[in-house]
Design a protein that fits this description.
With 420 residues, this protein is α/β, with parallel strands linked by helices. The chain is built from twelve helices and twelve strands. Strands 1, 2, 3, 4, 5, 6, 7, 8, 9, 10, 11 and 12 form a twelve-stranded mixed β-sheet that branches. α5 links the parallel β9 and β10. α8 packs antiparallel against α10. The longest helix has 30 residues. It is globular. The two termini are 15 Å apart. Bound molecules: 2-acetamido-2-deoxy-beta-D-glucopyranose (NAG) (3 copies). The site of one 2-acetamido-2-deoxy-beta-D-glucopyranose has 3 residues, from α8. Keywords: Hydrolase, Serine esterase, Signal. InterPro entries: AB_hydrolase_fold (IPR029058), CarbesteraseB (IPR002018), Carboxylesterase_B_AS (IPR019826), Carboxylesterase_B_CS (IPR019819). Its EC number is 3.1.1.-. It is an enzyme of class 3 (hydrolase). This is Carboxylic ester hydrolase.
């Protein structure tokens, strides 16, 4: 379904400009930017699709030393042709024990451009798809996106892809809730990248007035917020939100308030402030932001990865039962301390819905595993996404919804019960 909608979008947005990229005999490609010339390369995928690839283009001055924790500032101009043929280091994640690619640096504000090799037939240039990665605002990168899929899927269809890293965790989202340290630095990085793209994408054959900003998970929450903030909402035209929004708990934009139970705890994520948010809430901003065409999507069993079940032995999974979900609802999802005096009624409703409704006569563990993943999906992502869609529709946003229900075999292998 996503594919159909997406193809639809791509067909609607028909393509172009005179690309000013030049190919050399050795496959080098040269392009201008307003900061100086760059040299990338011509890439050909196994499917024979070609693209012009530029990796590691600086979109801000390295945010190091005095610039650490500061909003990004434009890069310094360069005179010599800058080599942009390999990815630069990823931004430093909060916790990297489980992360494979460990090439990190504070100096990480470099974007990547994958463009069709031909000029667009539309004099205004190709539409531009800007991808903001997920990772809960504390990890993630765009190196793993590579440039092969963007070539096969997007360059082939006349779209320019730009992948954007931004500062994470401590470096990007630490906030003390004070004027000196309002936070949202990672969101300001994303804005700096959008400005760079708007100013430079014409040199790559792109249309600066046809920019689609697409994010997944925390990236999805980011693009939602970018489409609302007065500092960014006029820098692009269309939005694709995959599995997340700005009012999700994980993106919860609260000012820093010391937690009573954990006074030293600081969460990393967007914070309501007087600058990026203009002193307003997401709900208030939706009322004033100009509506944009928006594709919003969710996946079936969206929350499966958060259940703690992937990786358990088949024997342990086979023991998963109604009792496990009931206990989780009582202890973690809806205890009195969270939902208040009506907790018994709320727990009963949740248990009826997630444990008993549509249960087969002789339920097996697979049934409960799926329902537990559904509980996590609704709790973490779905309910706020639907709330926000309602709000946007009421405020005149054209919203297109998709549900992704394909599960790749690697995903199914992590949780066999998740087969659909
Ligand atoms: C680039 O050239 C200009 C003019 O010659 C010069 O003023 C500037 O310092 C040079 N910049 C760098 C980074 O070399
Ligand atoms: C690009 O141009 C070449 C040569 O004219 C042509 O064979 C190819 O089909 C074009 N590709 C696209 C995506 O338009
Ligand atoms: C499910 O509950 C049983 C019995 O209380 C417990 O031993 C088991 O660890 C639980 N499984 C999971 C995955 O939490």
């Amino acid at each position: 379904m996503f594919k159909q909608i997406f193809t639809g979008v791509i067909l609607i947005i028909i393509l172009t400009t005179i690309a000013s990229q030049k190919l050399n005999k050795d496959n080098s490609i040269f392009a201008e930017t307003i900061y100086g010339p760059i040299e990338g390369f011509r890439h050909k995928t196994r499917n024979g699709i070609e693209s012009n690839v530029f990796l590691g283009i600086p979109y801000a001055k390295p945010p190091i030393k005095d610039l650490r924790f500061e909003p990004p500032i434009p890069p310094q101009k360069w005179n010599e042709t800058l080599q942009t043929k390999k990815f630069q280091s990823s931004c430093i994640p909060y916790n990297w024990e489980s992360i494979q690619n460990k090439d990190f640096s504070e100096d990480c504000l470099y974007l990547n451009i994958i463009a069709p090799t031909n000029s667009s037939k539309n004099a205004e240039g190709y539409p531009v798809l800007v991808y903001i990665h997920g990772g809960g605002f504390v990890f993630g990168d765009v190196v793993k996106c590579g440039f092969d899929k963007a070539t096969d899927n997007f360059a082939k269809r006349g779209l320019i892809t730009v992948t954007v890293p931004y500062r994470l965790g401590l470096y990007g989202f630490m906030s003390l809730g004070t004027a000196e340290d309002p936070g949202n630095i990672g969101l300001w990085d994303q804005i700096a990248a959008l400005k760079f793209i708007k100013d430079n994408i014409k040199y790559f054959g792109g249309n600066p007035n046809n920019i689609i900003v697409w994010g997944e998970s925390a990236g999805s929450a980011s693009v939602d917020l970018l489409s609302l903030s007065p500092h960014s909402r006029d820098l692009f035209q269309k939005v694709i939100q995959g599995s997340g929004c700005g009012i999700n708990e994980f993106a919860n934009s609260q000012p820093f308030i010391p937690d009573k139970a954990y006074p030293n705890y600081i969460g990393f994520g967007p914070r309501y402030d007087k600058n990026f948010f203009d002193g307003k809430t997401v709900e208030q901003l939706i009322k004033e932001a100009p509506p944009k065409p928006l594709i919003v999507g969710l996946m079936t069993l969206e929350g499966a990865a958060f259940t703690g079940l992937p990786g358990l032995s088949p024997e342990d999974l086979a023991k998963f039962s109604a009792k496990n979900i009931t206990k989780a609802i009582r202890k973690s999802f809806a205890p009195e301390s969270i939902v208040g005096p009506e907790f018994e009624e709320i727990q009963r409703d949740l248990i009826n819905y997630f444990v008993y409704q549509n249960a087969p006569e002789k339920p097996v563990s697979d049934f409960y595993i799926k329902r537990y993943a559904d509980l996590w999906s609704d709790f973490l992502i779905n309910q706020e996404v639907f709330n926000e869609i309602d709000l946007k529709v009421k405020n005149g946003w054209p919203v297109y919804f998709y549900l992704w229900n394909h599960m790749s075999s690697p995903v199914q292998a992590t949780l066999p019960a998740a087969k659909v």
